[in-house]
Amino acid sequence: MTKKLEGGCACGAIRYRLATSPMFVHCCHCRDCQRQTGSAFAINAIIETDRIKLLKGKPKPFTVPTDSQRPHDIYRCAKCQTALWSDYGRRLVMSFLRVGTLDNAAACPPDVHIFTRSKLAWIELPKSARAFKIYYNMEKEWPPESWARRKALLG
């Protein structure tokens, strides 16, 4: 990571800095992400939770229902309700940081587009995009260093 990645909520009550670059970035087109963001997709940077360093404030977890029935907690600013990151499956050690909350969201382009089977028809992906109708083979798609970080985190 060449530059510090910092971000925060809309009202400024929460600020954070990433201690390292994310392991991988998803652009997810699933219906859950569409509903939860009110948008066509969500862009999530996957990172170890302890590498999100809070500079100001503390987000509050809100549990949301999912089509998969897996637990999903979205960490939001209690004041303005901006969604900052998620914990899928309540693992507590890995977070899906909302790239749009970064001060420089362009610094984290998606590595893959997932669940494109539910992509809105008017969204056109770049021809060079790595896109998957559902999910993908993580060991094949993730860079070796990122895969090693994930394995060290989750076993």
Describe the structure.
- The structure is a single chain.
- The strands form 2 sheets. The protein has a 7-stranded mixed β-sheet with strand order 6-7-8-9-4-3-10. A 3-stranded antiparallel β-sheet has the order 1-2-5, with no helix packed on it.
- With 155 residues, it is of the alpha+beta class.
- The protein has one domain: glutathione-dependent formaldehyde- activating enzyme (gfa).
- Strand 7 and strand 8 form a beta hairpin.
- It starts with a strand and ends with a helix.
Please describe the structure with a list of short key phrases separated by commas or semicolons:
single chain; about 160 residues; alpha+beta; glutathione-dependent formaldehyde- activating enzyme (gfa); 7-stranded mixed beta sheet; 3-stranded antiparallel beta sheet; 3 helices
Short description:
With about 160 residues, this protein is α+β, with helices and mostly antiparallel strands.
Topology of this structure?
Elements: E1 5-8, E2 15-18, E3 24-28, H1 31-37, E4 42-48, E5 52-56, E6 60-63, E7 72-76, E8 83-88, E9 94-98, E10 112-114, H2 138-141, H3 144-154
Parallel strand pairs: 3-10
Antiparallel strand pairs: 1-2, 2-5, 3-4, 4-9, 6-7, 7-8, 8-9
- Overall geometry comes to globular
Whole-number count of domains:
1
Q: Which residues form runs of ≥5 with pLDDT under 50? A: none
The CATH fourth-level homologous superfamily:
glutathione-dependent formaldehyde- activating enzyme (gfa)
Under the CATH scheme, which architecture would be assigned? Alpha-Beta Complex
